[in-house]
Amino acid sequence: MNLKALLPAVVILFAAAGCSPAPDVGHTGTEQHALQETKAPESAFDETEAAEAVLRDHPDFPQPGEVKEIETTTGGEYPGTKVKGTLSTKVEPSQEPDTYIVTLTKQWNFTINDKELIGTWQYEVTPHSVQLIDHEDNTDLIEIVK
What we know:
By secondary structure, this protein is an alpha+beta fold. It has a domain at 47-144. Helices cover 16% and strands 38% of the residues. The protein has helices at residues 3-17, 47-55, and strands at residues 67-74, 81-93, 100-112, 115-126, 129-137. The protein has a five-stranded antiparallel beta sheet with strand order 1-2-3-4-5. The protein is elongated, with a radius of gyration of 34 Å.
């Protein structure tokens, strides 16, 4: 290929590339570019995510609004006494933004000395943490029934 023939084509390409429109220049003489905001879509932290954060560590408990039936066998003559109970999960918004209170409840359908066997665990849940803030549990008393 002849370089002399190629040279005019290269000059035309460079000239055409240099003919782009000039940027907008404001009254101050500086370039003004249209800024395009590229925000990542915000994923709002909600009750479902708060519950999932707690239930990851407590898979026996049901989703919020559901009740799961449970059963255990205690002492007594063979084959023992079957005791039924329930597990439940409740989620409430906290007074703080993006914060929820998740309460897990375990309740046996049984009393000992007129005391119901109930366990509750309350967690404060934010997008970045799960913290146990309160708990009461006497459900282990079911094991002493003879």
